[in-house]
């Protein structure tokens, strides 16, 4: 059989177990993602809102999938009543647009996040290619939805064979599903490998480069899922046991949508992990005369001057740790990588500085003490 099986040949049990397991993991990861955005870095970006929309679409698709299994999806068709067959197929097809839109919006969220990364060379070309891949996937999603719901006339015949009408578009739909699946696999792979083009040129230890590439490369799993999903498309056009054989396609579609969501949510989790673990990436803070200097694992040095309340400082770090700083509003976009000089590399990071009254008093007191020791009249 082409579908996974559970006890008594009920593939619906496998579908429910797999999809709800991934849902639970995704729920935890997305919550941590928003904890990091809201309470750690205090900045909710566009990709954060798109991730939230993706998760809402995932929730709706999961609900309709569960309803479909409740009515018999995953069970052999000869063990179901005619009414159960109609309802199982109906809610299966109703879940389709939410699954496809979750895939498309999730990838646009990933593109929006990756667009904040700039390499030392050909940054505009890379950015354009990144958006082309994301928008092509979105366009493909819209097109395939049109083919899905136009394959039968009238549309309810898609899940109820007893309704008079025709389904002349089934073969055409299978071909389009192959094309969409191939594009989905390619876009997943591209989005997971794109950061490698940037991180591998940074002047840091190879182990850290590998760690960054692995962190951003979880989309490879989504690409593998898309390949397996595409291999199940053929069941749509030739099966006589649709409620059972279609379950394999539903399993891989569910796994792909969740892995796309996870791949876009895991990289921004680092601030939350650092906050929870209380390690803050082994960072050491110290004060110099009129500046605050932040040293990160001896890899680079970030130096900032006093920042007005409610503003953000962006720090540019070169290969030799030469810092530059400029101030911007809190809604400034996070630019992690961009050009520095001719052929150089720099990383620009937005660090939010919240200066409450107690912190300001302590800072001023420290500066006054240092100035007094050096015989300087003020800071």
From TrEMBL:
InterPro entries: Rhodopsin_dom_fungi, SAT4-like. Keywords: Membrane, Transmembrane, Transmembrane helix. Residues 32-274 form the Rhodopsin domain. GO terms for cellular component: membrane. It is found in: Membrane. It holds the Pfam family Fung_rhodopsin. Signal peptide: none annotated. Its main location: membrane. The chain crosses the membrane at residues 12-36, 48-73, 93-115, 127-149, 183-202, 209-229. It is a multi-pass membrane protein. Belongs to the SAT4 family. This is Rhodopsin domain-containing protein. It comes from Imshaugia aleurites.
């Amino acid at each position: 059989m082409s579908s996974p099986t559970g006890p008594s040949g009920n593939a619906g049990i496998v579908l429910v177990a797999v999809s709800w397991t991934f849902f639970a993991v995704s729920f935890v990861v997305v919550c941590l993602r928003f904890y990091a955005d809201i309470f750690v870095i205090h900045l909710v970006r566009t990709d954060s809102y798109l991730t939230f929309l993706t998760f809402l679409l995932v929730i709706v698709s999961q609900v309709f999938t569960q309803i479909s299994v409740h009515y018999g999806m995953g069970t052999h068709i000869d063990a179901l009543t005619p009414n159960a067959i109609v309802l199982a197929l109906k809610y299966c097809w109703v879940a389709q647009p939410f699954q496809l839109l979750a895939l498309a919006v999730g990838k646009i969220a990933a593109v929006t996040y990756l667009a904040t990364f700039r390499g030392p060379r050909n940054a505009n070309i890379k950015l354009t290619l990144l958006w082309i891949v994301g928008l092509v996937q979105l366009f493909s999603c819209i097109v395939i939805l049109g083919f899905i719901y136009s394959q039968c006339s009238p549309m309810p015949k898609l899940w109820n064979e007893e309704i008079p009408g025709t389904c002349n578009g089934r073969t055409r739909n299978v071909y389009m599903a192959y094309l969409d699946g191939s594009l989905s696999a390619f876009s997943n792979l591209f989005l997971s490998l794109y950061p490698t083009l940037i991180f591998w040129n940074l002047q840091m230890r190879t182990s850290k480069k590998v760690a960054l590439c692995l962190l951003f490369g979880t989309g490879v799993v989504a690409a593998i899922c898309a390949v397996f999903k595409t291999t199940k498309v053929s069941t749509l056009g030739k099966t006589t046991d649709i409620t059972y054989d279609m379950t394999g396609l539903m399993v891989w579609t569910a796994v792909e949508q969740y892995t796309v969501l996870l791949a876009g949510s895991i990289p921004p989790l680092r601030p939350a992990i650092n906050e929870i673990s209380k390690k803050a990436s082994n960072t050491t803070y110290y004060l110099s005369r009129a500046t605050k200097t932040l040293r990160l694992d001896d890899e680079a040095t970030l130096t900032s001057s006093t920042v007005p309340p409610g503003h953000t400082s962006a720090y540019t770090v070169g290969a030799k740790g030469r810092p530059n700083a400029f101030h911007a509003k809190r809604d400034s976009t996070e630019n992690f990588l961009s050009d520095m000089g001719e052929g150089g590399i720099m990383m620009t990071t937005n660090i939010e500085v919240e200066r409450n009254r107690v912190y300001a008093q302590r800072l001023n007191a420290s500066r006054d003490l240092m100035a007094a020791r050096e015989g300087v009249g003020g800071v």
